[in-house]
Amino acid sequence: xxxxxTAREPVRIAHLGLGNFHRAHQAWYTxxxxxxxxxxxxxxxxxxxxSPRAALLLAAQDxxxxxxxxxxxxxxxxxxxxxxxxxxxxxxxxxxxIADPAVAIITVTVTERGYEPxxxxxxxxxxxGARIARGLAVRARASAGPIALVSCDNLxxxxxxxRRAVLRESHDAESGEWIRQNVSFVSTxxxxxxxxxxxxxxxxxxxxxxxxDAVPVVAEPFSEWVLCGDFPAGRPDWERVGARFVDDIxxxxxxxxxxxxxxxxxxxxxxxxxxxxxxxxxxSDRECRTMLEDLWAEARVLLPFEAEATDxxxxxxxxxxxxxxxxxxxxxxxxxxxxKLRERQAAIIVARLEAGDEPGRACLATVxxxxxSRGLDLAEALDVLRPGLARRVHLG
Length: 396
Description:
The chain is an alpha/beta fold. It has 18 helices and 11 strands. Strand 6, helix 5 and strand 7 form a beta-alpha-beta unit. Helix 11 crosses helix 16, helix 14 packs parallel to helix 15 and helix 15 runs antiparallel to helix 16.
């Protein structure tokens, strides 16, 4: 476990969306990169997206918190100190931070809804795009130099989605043009399961560290971060601690969507009907597991990766899904299943058909089971997901 430092790293990253995932993922990578570097590190000024509670609790303990890594066998802990300051996102400190020339990066975790236009978010107040645009307008007036915006939300081409959201809310033509000329939008694929923190987790942190931490974070051992884009004002050496920089993010997004996410959807759709509550429970069910392995066989042939790399990723998935100490609940995964099935199972079916192959037994079985729970036969369920899909698979 790292010793507490007497001085914090200078703020060079601003983060919007101070939640558990950021603290278990980007802040953890930055901590490790700082430890691996012989030069001055990168500190984060983290801002809440809505409620100020997380910032208040974190600031009260000097922004130091415990990361509990929970494997199937044991818990291990480390103290994370890469967040140098924590603030209520609704305050004026946001603009001052973004206008600081030393700040080279803004990272964002505001969930998918944070990218929607203001008119679609009744009573939501200022959108994430508007807050970022407001900060960038101040930076432009201060001539503080270029900056990279890094989306870490679970969206395909999330950097492009963030660019659209920010420019949509940039109502000043001059600052909009400055953004186009001086701001890069980096797309990323992020992966690490981070369940909600419980009182038992706080007791674990105290027992293992002696530190009475009000806001520890729990995460699975696996973590992945793939980035695509430019950093015009510099960045930490994240690649030294496991992050990957690529020229095209799409294959990595598709691998996650069609192996991890589609696997989760299959287990939720099939496992809930069999009385299971978590991914680990459903994964231990022989029938669910057989369907899952069939799904992976159907999807992997569509991915542009070497067989050895896909085998390694699937081995990691099996270990992750089997971990009984990470309570990833099937009801949470099943929420929004219509859209999820469209992007996952239906997309795999279409890709297989376009490749001249059969649609795939596991994908069809998942759609059929989802349809039965809603009073639909397979043909009807396919057409709900994608109009005309039943005819393409010769079911109508």
